[in-house]
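Researcher: I'd like a structural prediction for the single chain below. Treat it as a standalone chain; there are no partners to consider.
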Amino acid sequence: MKSKSLRRTNPEYREAEKSKEMKSKSLRRTNPEYREAEKSKEMKSKSLRRTNPEYREVEKSKEMKSKSLRRTNPEYREVEKSREMKSKSLRRTNPEYREAEKSREMKSKSLRRTNPEYREAEKSREMKSKSLRRTNPEYREVEKVGKHQQSKEEKS
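Model: Treating it as a single chain, here is the predicted structure.
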């Protein structure tokens, strides 16, 4: 017992212990058998963690924290934006993506056209904007000038 406590308090012993540990680590890293065993251990622990509900709960809370931290971190947001922009530009240049996007858009358009509720909402939106424009004196002025120019062009 004495020797253990003496060794722990002895800085030379601790230094020697550290160097031994470091050597063994580097040896283990280069040893393929060790690496294989390490991998299988890791895989077991991963599968165990996945099936353990407590672990999953802890993992979720960690993830949520990191998400909220990332959202508040301006550097992260900047990186995220650039990543998003890259993917957007890649999608734009990818003809398959563009084709899929078009068909998706067309479906939604045709669905909207056939949906009476949508058409009704669209009409009321249009009517509001028209009535707003009619009551707005600036808009009416612009509209007059536009019509005036149009009639001039038609005459000439």
